[in-house]
Structures are given as structure tokens and as C-alpha cells.
Amino acid sequence: MGNFTGKTILVSGASSGIGKACVKNFAAQGAKLILCARSLEKMQEIAEKLKDEFGTESKVLQVDVRNRTEVEAAINSLPDEWTKIDILVNNAGGALGLEKLHEGDPSDWDAMIDTNIKGLLYLTRLIVPMMLKQGLKGHVVNIGSIAGIAAYPNGAVYCATKAAVRCLSDGLRMDLVDKPIRVTNIQPGMTETNFSKVRFHGDEQRAAAVYSGITPLTASDIADIVTYVTSAPAHVQICEVTVTPTNQATGGVIYKKQ
Predict the structure, then answer these.
(1) Which of 1, 14, 140, 208 measures 20 to 30 Å from 127, CA to CA?
(2) So what's the architecture of 8-243 in CATH?
């Protein structure tokens, strides 16, 4: 893994799951961290633990990435010494519901589109110009999904949002091809976090059933990949990483032991 001493890294969705695992990895390698999420209490607890364990300097931003005004206010509130953001990890996102498209809840659609697509856009639009203005060798890491490669039944809207992440990552990489800023899209398969619990609106039994019979990926597995791609030599751009559990071939081809 690389050394991130002197680097400032912003991670959205930092209060749990993959985001929380990412900030721990980066803290262990000497980074300064900007934690961005809705839960102030959880982020403060994480920041305190990172300070105790690694001596990490952290900045906490309580913000809902779905709200452009909130995002702009939060980023614009950063003191000058925190505006040199070397790495942006667009991790905030999630799935809601698992119904046929014509039976889905439009409120779930709005939440997924606003978080998975628009939240990513809002942060990227603010932070990439900051990287360019300061002449940074920056890096934007988007946490996509294997769902963005091909749709699966009852997940059309979620899959569409992650397909958008894939296209936005490719487009941003093209737009920055003449600049020293790398763009990576990471596409995990089945990863056991609070993902399914959120998808099923808190139904823990239904969420647990998703991972029965298979050893899923963990948040730490994905965080290790984030650390790896961001620590590659400056001339190496890892454009896309698709990662699944060994017994998952695609989004819909999965072997589960009975």
C-alpha cells in the first residue's frame, strides 16, 4: 500500500461501510481526512478513533450530498488549509427497494438518482476545479457497482444509476485527459455492508438472506482496492476495477452453497 502523508482526502458516505473502511486505510497511511456524511455523531466518533489510533487530523462535514446547496456550503466553508484536496472518493450511494420497475416507489427512485448520480456530480464539480487551480496530481475515485455493467431483475433504477456512474467516470477521464488527474471507477459485486438492510428498508432478516450460502466481499476488501489504485505511480491510471466474490461471476450469476 502507498504512503499518503501530506495528502488531503475527502470521502463521502464516510460514516459507515466502504467509506468508513476507506478512511481507516488512508489514516493508517498518514493522510489528512475530510469526512462527509449525514450522521454527524458517527463521523465525530470515527474522527476521534482515527486521532487516537493514528494521530489523524480530520475535518467533519455534515452534509446530505443530495442537496446541492448543502454540498456547496460545506465545501465553500473549508478553511484554506483544507482546500488542497488530492483525492476525492465519491462513495455515498445506495439502493432502495427490489421491485419490478412498474411497481417501484418513485420516492426510492428519487433518493437513488439524487444520491448515486447527482451527489457524485455536485462534489466532483466543486472539487476537480480546486485540484486544477492548485495544480494537483489529483485522483477521483467513484464507487460504482457491477450493477452498472448489466441490469438485473427488479433493480432497473439502481442499475441505471450505477451505469450512469460508469459513463460519468469515463466522460470525466476524457475531459481530464490533458491534466494530471486520474479517474477510477470501482465496481464491486456482492459486498456485505448495510447495503441490503437499506435496500429492504431495515428488514434485517431479508438482508441477511442475500449473503447466505456465499462468502461476500467486505468493506475492507473494497477499501484495499481504493488504497491500491490511489497509490499507483502518477503515470499509471487504473480506469476501472470490477471485483466480485469468487462464487459470483456477474451481477446475476451466483453460486450459493445449500
Answers:
(1) 1
(2) 3-Layer(aba) Sandwich (3.40)
The model's pLDDT over 201-227, given as tens digits with 9 standing for 90+, comes to: 777 788 788 899 999 999 999 999 999
Residue among 158, 211, 228, 255 flagged as catalytic = 158
Under a CB-based contact definition with an 8 Å cutoff, are residues 25 and 224 in contact? yes
Dihedral angle, C-alpha 149, 152, 157, 162, nearest 10 ° = -20
Asked about 158 being catalytic, the answer comes back as yes
- What is the Cα–Cα distance from 144 to 197, expressed in whole angstroms? 18
Please give the helix or strand (H or E) that residue 107 lies within, else none: helix 106-112
The structural domains of the chain, with segments of one domain joined by +, span 8-243
pLDDT tens per residue, range 52-106: 999 999 999 999 999 999 999 999 999 999 999 999 999 999 999 999 999 999 9
Which residue(s) pair with 192 in the sheet? 218
